[in-house]
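thought: fold this chain, then report.
action: predict
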Amino acid sequence: VQLQASGGGLVHAGGSLNLSCQASISIWNIGALAWYRQVPGKEREQIASITTAGRTEYADSVKGRFTISKDNAKLTVDLQMNSLKPDDTAVYYCNVDEDRIAIMKRTGHWWDYWGQGTQVTVSS
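observation:
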C-alpha cells in the first residue's frame, strides 16, 4: 500500500494549489479514489471523489472551487484547488473513497493507512 500526497504549501486567500497523490496499483484497483482533509481536533472529511469511470463528487464546502482528476497511466489523483480560503487550511490526504473504506472495514480488509498527507495553509 502506497499513498504519497504532495503539492501543499502556504498561499494567500484567493490563491491556488494543485495537490497530487501517487497511489500504488493495489489501491488503484480498489475503485473510487478520494481526497480528504483534516484539521486538528476534527474528524477527517472526504471532500472530493472520483470513480473509475471518472464521475466526480464534491463536498459542498469545496464545490465549484476544487477539481479532482486522475491519470490512470501514472496512478495519480490530482486536486486542483482554486479560490482558496483560510477555512481550507488542513492536512490533505488521498485514499480510496469512504464507501470503499466502509466496505473494507466490514470485511476486515481496511488497511487504515493514510500516508503523511500534505499541509495546506491559507492565510487571510
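thought: worth noting. The mean pLDDT is 95.
final: C-alpha cells above.
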